[in-house]
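Hey, quick one: can you model this chain's 3D structure?
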Amino acid sequence: MIAMDINKVLSLLPHRYPFLLIDRVLEFEKDTRLLALKNVTYNEPFFNGHFPIQPVMPGVLIVEAMAQATGLLAMESDPSTVGETTIYLFVGIDKARFKQQVEPGDQLHIEVIQNKMKRGIGFFTGTATVDGKTVATAEIMCTAREIGS
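Sure thing. Here's the predicted structure for all 149 residues.
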């Protein structure tokens, strides 16, 4: 199992602050699974409005963190798809479920499992946990595309 620090994550994902939602990769198994970490802090820009009295990480951003993790798994599994003119796109989501709130101070662990690759589209199962408890699950699809196409 190979880990990735923030510099490796930045070299693969095009996202930057405030939309980069992966701080590091804790575990990686080629073509199989990836476990990523997002440290959720009170300084996140979305907490100003979601919600000032009870800060909660928006569910759509938890799903986006899963999508970023799927991109990392796909790119690191097949480096030939990575390039300056290529980007991984989030192309679908099914069965998204939210079970618990994510709050400032939480460490969000995002595990994605590659189910299959079919005609260039990757199919993944994502699970987000905090302190070992599932906070969200989803089925995610992504694909590599040339920028501008």
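One thing worth noting: The chain has one domain: 6-146.
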